[in-house]
Amino acid sequence: MFKPADSSVTLSPLIANRWSPRSFDAVAEISDGDIAAILEAGRWSPSTNNQQPWRFIVAKRGDTHFENLSKHFAGFNAAWAPTASALVLVAAVTTNDDGSARPFALYDAGLASAFMTMEANHRGIAVHPIAGYDREKVKAEYSLPDNYLQTAILVLGTQASPDQLSDPALQEREKAPRVRLPLSELVIAGLPGA
What we know:
- By secondary structure, this protein is an alpha+beta fold.
- It has a single domain (about 15-170), classed as NADH Oxidase, CATH 3.40.109.
- It has helices spanning about 15, 30-45, 65-70, 75-80, 105-120, 135-140, 170-175, 185; strands at about 55-60, 85-95, 125-130, 150-155.
- It has a 4-stranded antiparallel β-sheet with strand order 1-2-4-3, sandwiched between helices.
- α2 runs antiparallel to α5.
- It starts with 12 loop residues before the first helix and ends in an 8-residue tail after the last helix.
């Protein structure tokens, strides 16, 4: 399914064509090379003072990590996300070794997620970030330190037909047009042409 952004100006196709599907091909696989490239894109994303606060848990369908993460999906994510080919949990290390705060760790982890999403899309791999999972159970499962703040799980795979989703409400959401607030509601000051 192709749902390009209806933007006010022409955007790079990599950005304009990016969206977050829920219907994934349950048998398609992602190569180790593609996963490595996606992780490298995250590794090379911008970082405040080059602190690189992102940490990843990487899971491919069929391995233990995929099972460990999938069993903690919440709500309707539990119905569709396990059909994906891979999962990448992104966490931000929120403190330095001396215990002082890293106030931009979440921003940096978000950039890493964005870079990984763009690299995946460049390779023809769809990405849907989710926040609907039990963070406390994942934290316990992997003995994550208290200063590892989980930001999202990136669900990766080959997009499939919306009709493969078992829930009619999810099918409708998959087929619905993409919408965004206009720039006039997002820019506080300095909107070009205003």
